[in-house]
Amino acid sequence: MARRSLSPEEQALWAALTRSVKPIRAAPRLPVPAAAPMKQPVEPRRLTPSPDLPFVPQAARSPATILDSGWERRIRSGNLVPDMTIDLHGHTLASAHARLGQALALGLAQGARILLVITGKPPKTRASGGTPRRGAIRGEIGHWLETGAHADRIASVRAAHPRHGGDGALYVILRRSR
């Protein structure tokens, strides 16, 4: 497409416009303040525990394992509808631990009773004769739930029904808030 030339009227209008334009003046540059002198690093102090206060580890609170027969029947038949689902599959241990804590806090705040936690099924390997190994997240999740901030609010932890992920998922059943 060829560019057209300006008509005499357009040329006069363009010339009047360019005469009225003023160039932008650059703002004067402010001087950069001098850097503050570096302070001497503080010597690290060694803290030694007081001998009169022995270390007492906090006992791990484990979620209850007993549910009534109605819950057991619903779990076996798969007639549970999770109130909330969290997928930890593919996460690192650190991010999975953080997400689990956030999901438990959110579930408790929303009044959820059943949390479906997907950990992912570990692959079957030929080296182990085709027997499944336990995944890293699945291996740690019990400890996280026992020692977490919400351990006293967990009624039970059970393997999920195949419809909800089977060996690769867990039901975390939360206590009712009273």
UniProtKB/TrEMBL annotation:
Residues 35-57 are annotated as: Disordered. It comes from the Bacteria. Residues 86-175 form the Smr domain. It holds the Pfam family Smr. PANTHER family: DNA ENDONUCLEASE SMRA-RELATED. This is Smr protein/MutS2. The lineage of its organism: Bacteria, Pseudomonadati, Pseudomonadota, Alphaproteobacteria, Sphingomonadales.
